[in-house]
């Protein structure tokens, strides 16, 4: 597959998650709630996580922002649901490395998340892509205290 075709595929995946976000909404009051924003561009996220016995049982988000920010939140919720908290944190670390253009482990199937790897070429957009992931890290760390 040529670079242009791959780039177009990735754009399609991003726009699909933006237009039809997965796991949009919120969970009940027994969930971990995290609100974060990116003051640089105005993206904001309200993330709720249901964590039970070290497992991310469910994740929902609401928010406003660019296609990168909102599609990243959609993709992130898909990939962490059903994962152990430690695995979710490992995925966040892998995503962070991917955003910095570093080599990252292929131990985990990132699924649609890999469509965001091109964001690393646009430093101003990295904060958009990582907002949901930073919220998730903050939420699971708060839950473990």
From TrEMBL:
UniProt-recorded Gene Ontology molecular function terms: iron ion binding; iron-sulfur cluster binding
InterPro entries for this protein: NIF_FeS_clus_asmbl_NifU_N
Name of the protein described by the UniProt record: SUF system NifU family Fe-S cluster assembly protein
NCBIfam families according to UniProt: SUF_scaf_2
UniProt-listed PANTHER family: IRON-SULFUR CLUSTER ASSEMBLY ENZYME NIFU HOMOLOG
UniProt family annotation: Belongs to the NifU family.
One Pfam family hit: NifU_N
Record-annotated NIF system FeS cluster assembly NifU N-terminal domain positions: 10-128
One of the protein's GO biological processes: iron-sulfur cluster assembly
């Amino acid at each position: 597959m040529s670079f242009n075709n791959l780039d177009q595929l990735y754009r399609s995946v991003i726009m699909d998650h933006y237009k039809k976000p997965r796991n949009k909404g919120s969970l009940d009051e027994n969930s971990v709630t995290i609100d974060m924003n990116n003051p640089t561009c105005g993206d904001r996220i309200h993330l709720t996580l249901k964590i039970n016995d070290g497992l991310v049982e469910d994740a929902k988000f609401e928010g406003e922002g660019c296609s990168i920010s909102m599609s990243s939140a959609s993709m992130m919720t898909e990939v962490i649901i059903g994962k152990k908290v430690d695995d979710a944190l490992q995925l966040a670390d892998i995503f962070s490395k991917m955003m910095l253009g570093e080599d990252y482990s292929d131990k985990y199937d990132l699924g649609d998340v890999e469509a965001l790897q091109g964001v690393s070429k646009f430093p101003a957009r990295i904060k958009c892509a990582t907002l949901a992931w930073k919220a998730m890290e903050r939420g699971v760390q708060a839950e473990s205290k």
